[in-house]
Amino acid sequence: MGNDAFVPSLAAVQRYAGQIRDNVARVIIGKLEVIDLLLVALLSDGHVLLEDVPGMGKTVLAKALARSLGATFQRVQGTPDLLPTDIIGVSYYDQKQNEFVFRSGPLFAQILLVDEINRTTPRTQSALLEAMAERQVTVERESKQLPRPFLVLATQNPVELEGTFPLPEAQLDRFLLRVQMGYPEEQEEQEILHRFKLNEPLETLQPVVSATEFVGLQRAVREVQWQPEVERYLLAIVRATRRNDAIQLGVSPRGTLALYRACEAYAAIQGRNFVQPDDIKYLSPFVLGHRILATNRNRMRGRRSQEIINEIVQTIEVPVEAIATPPATR
User: Fold this and answer.
1) Domains defined for the chain, CATH in brackets
2) Torsion, CA 87, CA 291, CA 289, CA 36, rounded to 10
3) To which H or E segment does residue 129 belong?
4) Which of 92, 170, 233, 325 has the most CB atoms at less than 10 Å from its CB?
5) How many angstroms separate the CA atoms of 51 and 53, rounded?
6) Distance separating alpha carbons of residues 200 and 269, to the nearest angstrom
7) What tens-digit pLDDT sequence spans the chain (330 residues)?
């Protein structure tokens, strides 16, 4: 990190995003797409639901991202007996000060990993997701602001359902992205063996940008521009989810805004000051997939919501002129 005055700009977004990606890739092998999606969530001030089986490196990924930002990190293991106070914190009576003192919980970290969120009870899920939406918690009728940047990485095992409390659609809507990491390729898995044979790369990871500077990058992303045709293309995809026969409940306006913000962040990471239709096509399954409710027939047939979104995207005409003509600089 340089010592000169930091001036947020779109060029800075791409530069720092590349440095963060390379830094995290020193620990996480072969998951550049996942790293970029986490950066999209961070720059959009959103949260991520990671769906995958245990042992895929989700905890290491979250720690590597936190270290790259010089951000505080906490991890919470989801269990049925986890209470809201275990995450938020609790007020206790301090006899020395002769008053009640608030002891903050792990929720006040800048990057919080909630492992197996679907093992926590609905009461605890609601407390966490309320904080995610409002960026604050209320303790003893006093509002306490959460730190910035603030990213919740929640994980759930999509296979094991016994003893779980699945997140309802209204709460899933609080996550900007739903992402699957997937198994590594054979060559990548061999590289994992070699890289972790003698040392732990995570221990030597250094920050490449400060958390304060990253908040500036979040503001800079808002400079990304939209052509009217591209905006209408995004709206056409969202509105198509509300009249599709395979979908019982379509994307809400909050989902529309989530896709809008995510596309701006993705364009900035790619070094552009404008959104392309391909950005919308690429991000739609990650942003909209968990925001629809498929009909009972389609759920019984095992159709994944991301597949339905992909099918919808293929039916919407792409504004070709918008690809060739970027918007004029304001």
Assistant:
1) 10-202 (3.40.50.300), 224-316 (1.10.8.80)
2) -50
3) helix 122-134
4) 233
5) 7
6) 28
7) 544 445 578 889 999 999 999 999 999 888 999 999 999 999 999 999 998 877 778 888 999 999 999 999 999 999 999 999 999 988 887 778 778 788 889 999 999 999 999 889 888 888 888 888 888 888 777 788 899 999 999 998 776 666 678 887 777 888 999 998 888 888 888 888 887 777 777 888 899 999 889 999 999 999 999 999 999 999 999 999 999 998 998 999 999 999 999 999 999 999 999 999 999 999 999 999 999 988 888 877 778 889 999 999 999 999 876 665 666 655
Which tokens sit at 279? 């950005």
Distance between CA atoms of 117 and 154, rounded to whole angstroms?
A: 6
Q: Residue 20 and residue 156: Cα distance in Å, rounded? A: 25
DSSP state of 55: T
Return d(Cα 84, Cα 133) in angstroms, integer. Answer: 16
- Residue 327's alpha-carbon distances to 229, 272, 278, 301, in angstroms, are 10, 11, 15, 43
* Token pair for 35: 């790293």
Two structure tokens written together for 134 = 């409002």
Helix and strand counts by DSSP (H, E) for the chain: 14, 11
Rounded distance, CA 75 to CA 61, Å?
12
Contact, 49 vs 290, CB < 8 A? yes
Q: Which of 86, 85, 79, 87 is nearest to 165 (CA)?
A: 79
